[in-house]
Amino acid sequence: MKILISSCLLGEDVRYDGNNSSIAFTPSFTFSIKELFMDILCENEIYSFCPEVAGGLSVPRASSEIIKNDKPFIVKNEKGDDVTINFLLGAKKALDICKEENIKVALLKAKSPSCGNKQIYDGTFSSKLIDGQGLTARLLEENGVKVFNENEIKDLAKFIKTNK
């Protein structure tokens, strides 16, 4: 199966802080989850993608949050700069790859203003989470791509098994 995966989860240093969120090397993940993740990587066709970098943002960059999560969207960084267009461009490029490659599932970074699929930060830069989706996760799901986050590896594995 073809899977779009957030580059940071694969160990690429593309996060806003210049680091990564590698599943394989993050101590909070159990060995069994890491092993399951590695099985997913080895048994499927992986497409690494960072929508924020694809949308033109640098590494490192100021952290960003969604200020308004319905149209017209507003995404600002902690300096107050409007970076909405970068997030929209990155989301569109992710969707384009999914359409071109017939990708029906994605593993994206939880809580991200691009990739979060269940919760995102509330837009006040106070570390408060709210229910919601990042712009990429939202666009992908609206177009039939099933989105999981790194805390849903078991669910992703079940989805792959039942949809092969």
Q: What is the oligomeric state here?
A: single chain
Radius of gyration (Å): 15 Å
Give me the count of strands: 8
Shape: globular
Spans of at least 5 consecutive residues whose pLDDT stays below 50 are none
The residue fraction in helices comes out at 25-40%
Mean pLDDT: 97
| Count of DSSP-assigned helices | 5
Q: SSE order, as H and E?
A: EHEHEEHEEEHEH
N- to C-terminal separation? Answer: 7 Å
Query: How would you classify the helix and strand content by structural class?
Result: alpha/beta
Largest sheet: 4 strands, parallel
Fraction in beta strands:
15-25%
How many distinct folded domains? Answer: 1
User: What order do the strands of the largest sheet run in, or round the barrel if closed?
Assistant: 2-1-5-8
Attribute tags:
164 residues; 32% helix; 2-thiour_desulf
What is the topological layout?
Blueprint: E1 2-6, H1 31-43, E2 45-49, H2 51-54, E3 64-68, E4 74-77, H3 84-101, E5 105-108, E6 119-121, E7 129-131, H4 135-142, E8 146-149, H5 153-162
Parallel strand pairs: 1-2, 1-5, 5-8
Antiparallel strand pairs: 3-4, 6-7
Helix pairs in contact: 3-4
Can you give a write-up of this model?
There is one protein chain. The chain is α/β, with parallel strands linked by helices and 164 residues long. The chain has one domain (2-163). Helices cover 32% and strands 20% of the residues. It has helices at 31-43, 51-54, 84-101, 135-142, 153-162, and strands spanning 2-6, 45-49, 64-68, 74-77, 105-108, 119-121, 129-131, 146-149. A four-stranded parallel sheet has the order 2-1-5-8, sandwiched between helices. The chain has a two-stranded antiparallel sheet with strand order 3-4. The protein starts with a strand and ends with a helix. InterPro entries: 2-thiour_desulf. Pfam families: 2-thiour_desulf.
